[in-house]
Amino acid sequence: MDLPVVAAPMAGGPTTVRLAEAVGARGAFAFLAAGYKQPAAVAEEIAAVRAAGRPFGVNVFVPAPVPVGEADFRRYATRISGEGTRYGLDLADAPLTEDDDHWAEKVDLLVREPVPVVSFTFGLPPADVVRDLRRAGSRVLLTVTDAAEAAGAAELGVDGLVVQSGDAGGHFGTFTPASPAPARPLADLVAAVRAQTGLPVLAAGGIGGADDVRAALAAGATAVLVGTLLLRADESGTSATHRDALADPRRDRTVVTRAFTGRPARALRNDFIDRYDAEAPLGYPALHHLTRPLRAAAAQAGDPDRVHLWAGTGWRAARAAPAAEIVGDLTRSL
Question: What are the protein's UniProt keywords (predicted)?
Answer without folding.
Answer: Detoxification, Dioxygenase, Flavoprotein, FMN, Monooxygenase, Oxidoreductase
